[in-house]
Amino acid sequence: MPIPRPVVENTPYITVIVPFRNEIDNLPRLIDSLLRLKYPEGKLEILLVDDHSEDNPGEYLGNYLKKYSHIQLLHSDEPGKKAAITLGVKRSNGEWMIVTDADCVVTESWIKGLVRYMSGERHFVFGPIRLNGSGLLSGFQKIEQAALTALGGVSIQSGTPSMANAANMAFRKSTFEELGGYMGNSEVPTGDDEFLLQKIHEQYPDGVVFVKDYKVLVDAAPSRSIIGLINQRRRWASKWGKQAQPLYAIFILVFYVLLIFKTIQVLIDENYAILLLLGIKWLADLVLVLSVQQLLKQRLPVFAFIIGQILYPFYAILIAILANFGSYSWKGRTYRI
Predict the structure, then answer these.
(1) What are the backbone angles phi and psi of residue 131, rounded to the nearest 5°?
(2) Is the dihedral of CA 212, 129, 226, 197 positive or negative?
(3) Strands 129-131 and 333-336
(4) Which phi-psi region, left, alpha or beta, contains residue 159 (left: φ > 0; alpha: ψ -120 to 50)?
(5) Which of 169, 205, 248, 264 has a CA 20 to 30 Å removed from the CA of 54?
């Protein structure tokens, strides 16, 4: 698949949809960044869709709603992020929907950058995510996110899209409606990005594009605790068994089991041939992460990278196991797997 070319002089009506739940500490920062967006007046609306928040969002959003007519607060009747996004689409006036999360901050050129890739044959556009924060846990998540971003872009180029991120994705309203939105997977509490990506790609194989451009990145906050990180990753991974093509997830699990086995074999047998292969794998990981962090204008957290190379196989297997058993908590709700 060729590298996508931007479209020139394209200014569709844009609807920004922000599904949220209990985000009193994060929404003001996001809204302030949305208000700095550079896009033609009268061509943009912002829909904040409340997913049954318990912190009275209308009270602290009141000043924004009174002052800016293009910002609206909606209340979803059904629980869940997919229901909130669906309501936003139904109530929107835009030709294109752009979705982000309440704990994010966008650049001034975010919409203009994405719009440059919205042509007649395109139906789904998504961009990179950059995690901020300091410390070992944040550094670990930065590296993981960089790898996921790279894999998302590569999977699109190879014609087998495997992942996107709902913190920075856009799609045509007409395409969402034509394909029935989240019909067929609405009961799954996650996958609002990947299920939609794969559904649209199946219908329009050449209509999906990853935008490799610093101007369209979205800054997001990493999980602040190990428990929060594990719950988030369990939520993400819990959709693997519901996907039409779960082979990617199976491959990842088998790969890391074999990696641990081979590493133990090196320690026991002093097999230097395997050690060389492990070194090549670590070098490939380093090149991959550095390429994305160059795009994000972010420095490599070296210590986190080294620790991650040792611990990540165990972490990936743990998440794969936990994602198929028990329950997890997210945004004040408990989900059975």
Answers:
(1) -90, 140
(2) negative
(3) unpaired
(4) left
(5) 169
H-only helix segments in the chain:
27-35, 57-67, 81-91, 110-115, 136-157, 173-178, 194-203, 226-237, 247-269, 272-296, 302-322
Name which of 78, 95, 84 is nearest 47 in CA terms: 84
Residue-wise pLDDT for 28-73, tens only, equals 999 999 999 999 989 999 999 999 999 888 888 988 999 999 999 9
Quote the pLDDT of residue 84.
96
Average pLDDT over residues 103-112: 96
Domains in the chain (CATH in brackets) are 14-127+165-222 (3.90.550.10), 247-336 (no CATH)
For the stretch 118-162, pLDDT in tens is 988 899 999 999 998 889 999 999 999 998 888 888 877 777 787
Q: How far apart are CA 304 and CA 319, in angstroms?
A: 19
Pairing label, strands 14-20, 44-50 = parallel
Residue with tokens 């590296």: 143
Angle at the Cα of 161 from the Cα atoms of 181 and 46, rounded to 5 degrees: 45
* The pair of three-digit structure tokens given for residue 280, joined into one six-digit string: 């090549």
Question: Is beta strand 71-75 parallel, antiparallel or unpaired with respect to 44-50?
Answer: parallel
Q: Which of 85-94, 97-106, 250-259 has the lowest mean pLDDT?
A: 250-259
- Cβ neighbours for 45, distance < 8 A, ≥ 6 positions apart: 13, 14, 15, 16, 70, 71, 72, 92, 93, 94
Task: Provide the whole-model pTM.
Answer: 0.88
What pLDDT is attached to residue 1? 46
Indicate the helix (H) or strand (E) that contains 15.
strand 14-20
Complete DSSP assignment for 101-157: -TTEEE-TTHHHHHHTT--TT--EEE--EEE---SHHHHHHHHHHHHHHHHHHHHHH
Q: Within 13 Å of residue 51, how many CA atoms lie on the same side as its CB? A: 23
d(CA 280, CA 283): 5
